Target: Polyprenyl synthetase family protein
Amino acid sequence: MSSTSTTAAFDTRVSAYLQRLERSMDAILPPASTDPQRLHEALRYACEGGKHLRALMVYAAGETLGVDAERLDAAACAVELIHAYSLVHDDLPGMDNDDLRRGRPTVHKAYDEATAILVGDALQTSAFEVLAISAALDDAQKVQMIRALALAAGSLGMVGGQAVDMASENLTLTLAQLESLHARKTGALILVTCQLAAIAANASETVRNTLEHYGRCIGLAFQIQDDVLDQIADTATLGKTAGKDLAQHKSTFPSLLGLEQAQQRAHALFDEARNAARSISGHADALLWLADHIQQRDH
Model:
């Protein structure tokens, strides 16, 4: 399937992209019957459900740059594997200690803590495997993608953000500190979706910079939106425990800015992202659709 056609709205192709992702994930994860069976059952359990917004960002950015979907599959799968691993570990008692994820028991509740730790470990390594074995990418692209994803997921990115988040409980952060925290914890993995698509496209530095600006805006807006939803939505809607931020005495954008100003800040960032998308040479309908889709989410 070529993703260069922009004659129809992106949402008409979302189901096809999600099917591609499902096939890629099914191919990279060992069957549930593989020994050790309990571990592989839990691996697949951890990857079920979810909105797959990060994978859709890879496809949307790639489509905007005229990249065939075959060259985006590995990157879309890799970011979802890293995201799934991060959720499994974040939910552990030593981290956020949550019992509910995607509307059902977290992995350590459905199985046990040791299995959940191993599931996260295996998902993380699988993310780099799927990039390394892709037949649709050349060696230089594989190396660039592996490095970009490693930086986004490591101590300077997502993992570092989680460490700062845990250390910040019961503290009142400044707005700049809070934005820096979430640029790593949440934003890094959203930003890298744009970077991976740009690598697949062999995009120019100018295009990469513009696409990265889109990703940074979406990443921060997404986190502000998460903070708002944690305050105003219920557990059934969110699919995870509502009100956790307040219970853990964490600084949030609503707590620093007020609910209305936090919502306005998110709206402004979504608008800034859309402006960045429109300035990229080519068709930006996919990125524009995605910004609208994320902005309208309720969980």
Observations:
- The two ends are 30 Å apart (CA to CA).
